[in-house]
Design brief:
alpha/beta, Rossmann fold, seven-stranded mixed beta sheet
Length: 199
């Protein structure tokens, strides 16, 4: 059902741009939250070529089951799925996973079509940025108010939040592109600010 309400074709341009902004190449590590049914996997793999590491997190076991089906069908072996609440990312499974894999942080993080549904959206952004490695890249793809009634209906979400303004204060090289789907979808991106450059 999710793939029906969130069709690949509708989000293709925005999703392609968001993942392009991550500046991926082989052997990079990527965190995707919420991973949903794994629609981003084939986009990631265009750059990673089944190398590096993709970690997908979602609170829905049903979504993760569909994502696992995509992994199995394509025989990808660089993807790990974790069943976890995105708002608790900074304190449990994902951090343990980083430690187990000797990673100090992710090279890239994509949060797509999720922040509109998180009550603690500012905290989620802050947590995600903190989980980036030095100079790591983050991209957020989400809805604008033009789709507000539909988004609220299917996900009880809000799309009139200043997501772009908040992330702009947390990253360097900030960019936002709101040209997708007649202004209904935006892509915001940036790099983690080096500790020595924080004021």
């Amino acid at each position: 059902m999710y793939d029906v309400f969130s069709p690949k074709k509708y989000y293709h341009k925005a999703r392609s741009q968001a993942i392009k902004e991550l500046r991926l190449n082989k052997e990079k590590s990527v965190l995707n939250v919420p991973v949903g049914t794994g629609q981003n996997f084939e986009y990631f793999q265009q750059y990673l070529r089944n190398s590096g590491l993709i970690v997908g997190v979602d609170i829905s076991r049903g979504m993760l089951g569909k994502a696992q089906n995509k992994i199995d069908q394509s025989q990808w072996d660089n993807i790990k799925l974790l069943n976890q609440d995105v708002t608790n990312l900074g304190s449990s499974l994902v951090n343990e996973f980083l430690e187990e894999n000797s990673l100090k942080g992710f090279d890239a993080i994509l949060c797509d079509l999720g922040l509109s549904g998180f009550p603690q959206w500012k905290e989620v952004i802050d947590i995600l940025v903190s989980m980036l490695s030095t100079n790591g890249r983050i991209a957020i793809m989400d809805w604008y108010i033009v789709r507000g009634n539909f988004v609220r209906w299917i996900g009880k979400g809000e799309v009139n939040r200043p997501i772009g303004q908040h992330i702009e204060t947390r990253v360097a090289d900030f960019q936002v592109d709101s040209s997708f789907n007649r202004g209904g979808v935006f892509v915001a991106s940036g790099s983690k600010i080096h500790e020595s450059k924080k004021t």
